[in-house]
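Good morning,

Attaching, inline, the backbone tokens for the sequence recovery test we're adding to the shared suite. The designed sequence is right after.
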């Protein structure tokens, strides 16, 4: 259904440090910058794009919005969370934790306030 998610940033260099580190923790590649200066991250078929707002007004985080990122394992979730905190993100809601549904989950706010979650799914029974 979705081709990509686009979020705004007030400081693309700061965003690049944060997202390069968090995606590297998941085994992803650093972001690329397109001809318009937007950051582009592709990982496991999904695409996250980060830009300064076209209207020239400050970027703001979506109230009630969350971007979910799939991780391969609880270790990747922890590494993602640690990398995010180390590069200007803020841990929110709870420390990385196992949920009753079997998902291992962590939450962060990026340096611009966007709410993110990384989660690994329960192992499938053979």
């Amino acid at each position: 259904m979705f081709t990509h998610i686009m979020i705004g940033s007030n400081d693309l260099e700061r965003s690049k440090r944060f997202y390069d580190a968090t995606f590297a923790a998941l085994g992803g590649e650093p972001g690329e910058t397109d001809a318009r200066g937007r950051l582009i991250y592709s990982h496991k078929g999904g695409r996250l794009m980060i830009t300064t707002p076209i209207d020239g007004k400050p970027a703001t985080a979506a109230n009630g919005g969350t971007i979910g990122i799939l991780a391969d394992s609880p270790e990747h979730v922890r590494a993602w969370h640690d990398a995010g905190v180390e590069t200007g993100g803020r841990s929110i809601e709870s420390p990385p934790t196992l949920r009753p549904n079997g998902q291992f989950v962590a939450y962060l706010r990026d340096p611009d306030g966007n709410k993110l979650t990384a989660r690994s799914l329960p192992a499938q029974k053979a």
